[in-house]
């Protein structure tokens, strides 16, 4: 019998964690007051959050996927072979 993690749970949790980190970084630092040295545009906090959320969600999905793969490999070592019988009953 082999147990494996549900990859979708790890990917969604990683994305949510990435967005949470983006939220914390957006409101922890007030770097949106001045102009950007590259574009000479002032970005609002919601724009900064959007940029960070996109990057954070992508990185979070990547980290969640790698974590699920590592956990799957670790659980593969504990694989056991079992036998199961199937019974078929006909009721008339």
Automatic annotation (TrEMBL):
The chain crosses the membrane at residues 7-29, 49-71. Keywords: Membrane, Transmembrane, Transmembrane helix. This is Potassium transporter Trk.
């Amino acid at each position: 019998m082999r147990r494996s993690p549900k990859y979708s749970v790890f990917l969604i949790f990683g994305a949510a964690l990435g967005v949470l980190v983006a939220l914390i970084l957006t409101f922890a630092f007030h770097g949106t007051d001045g102009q950007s040295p590259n574009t000479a545009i002032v970005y609002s906090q919601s724009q900064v959050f959007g940029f960070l959320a996109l990057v954070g969600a992508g990185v979070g999905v990547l980290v969640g996927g790698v974590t699920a793969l590592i956990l799957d490999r670790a659980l593969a070592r504990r694989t056991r072979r079992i036998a199961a019988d199937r019974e078929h009953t006909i009721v008339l």
